[in-house]
Amino acid sequence: MIVKNEEQSLPKCLESVKDVVDEIIIIDTGSTDRTKELAKTFTDKIYDFEWINDFGAARNYSFSKATKDFILWLDADDVFTDENREKLRTLKKTLSLDIDAVSMLYHLTFNEDGSPSFSSRRNRLVKRENNFKWIGFVHEYLEVAGNIIPSDIAVVHQKERHASNRNLLIYEKALESGQPFSPRDKYYYANECNDNRKYEKAIYWYQYFLEEGLGWSEDNIQACGKLADCYLNLKRYPEAMDICQKSFLYDAPRGEICCRLGFLYLEQNDLVKAISWYKLATVVEIPEKSPFINRSCYTWLPNLQLCLCYSRLGHQEIARSYNEKAAEFLPNNSQIQYNQEFFKRYFGE
């Protein structure tokens, strides 16, 4: 792990994994709180790394301190639930040395019932002797190859901090120094601009990334959706709709894009077109091989939005049927439950 000022999160993370792993290695990049003091209650392998605005370098340093056959990496706000801790323990007992890496699910956001709504997949466990390296100074990734197996083990992200401009400032400092940006850097710099509401600058960098044509197809699709969000925030609806449809050049329509298009038309009160896109979101296949899936956009969300659209058109029976479809996926959602009570009153039940 690499950490800095994580006294709130680190104990919970380490508590969730301490009984499964054989060694815990903490690389501190300049904490001024009790992070290192708390880490000492779990391990004596704590090292300092002088921060050089390079996450990849810090992670590679952390890997250099590992001594076991396999390396598991985590962030301070990641945890293993009891169920996933047992799965990890089972994997550890059965893991063969002919495995080079194991990918795990990464649950990032959750529905009201606690089920994951948005998940990605990351290579979490790697064979040490392969000397795999981290690439990138911000939003770094672990470059792996060989025999990689997907597992159903999930790491749960429990982010407690509010968003900051830390990464944005690192990127801007790199730009000022003339540091070359890879296609991935351009995409993630655009993301940081977007997250910090610098929409015009984000639009420029998303366009730069897409027009260059060197990006990973999954990042291209994500960039189209995020670029559409920038246009939406600026009320530039035609451009938002155009870039959503450009995503279809990279793969079949995704539920996330269909829901964006539905919302764009809904915002303009074009309910018929909104309905067509929300309906499509309910029938397109979930791209299970994609590392980025927002399952809400294939299940309850488009059905709930269809309820809204049909209700506005005055077709209350149809609207109610879609609300019930949404309830099949997420019965405890407050809006779905509110609609159920509304329809009972409307139909005099």
Automatic annotation (TrEMBL):
<dbReference type="InterPro" id="IPR001173">
    <property type="entry name" value="Glyco_trans_2-like"/>
</dbReference>
<dbReference type="InterPro" id="IPR011990">
    <property type="entry name" value="TPR-like_helical_dom_sf"/>
</dbReference>
<dbReference type="Pfam" id="PF13181">
    <property type="entry name" value="TPR_8"/>
</dbReference>
<dbReference type="Pfam" id="PF00535">
    <property type="entry name" value="Glycos_transf_2"/>
</dbReference>
<dbReference type="InterPro" id="IPR019734">
    <property type="entry name" value="TPR_rpt"/>
</dbReference>
<dbReference type="InterPro" id="IPR029044">
    <property type="entry name" value="Nucleotide-diphossugar_trans"/>
</dbReference>
<feature type="domain" description="Glycosyltransferase 2-like">
    <location>
        <begin position="1"/>
        <end position="93"/>
    </location>
</feature>
<protein>
    <submittedName>
        <fullName>Glycosyltransferase</fullName>
    </submittedName>
</protein>
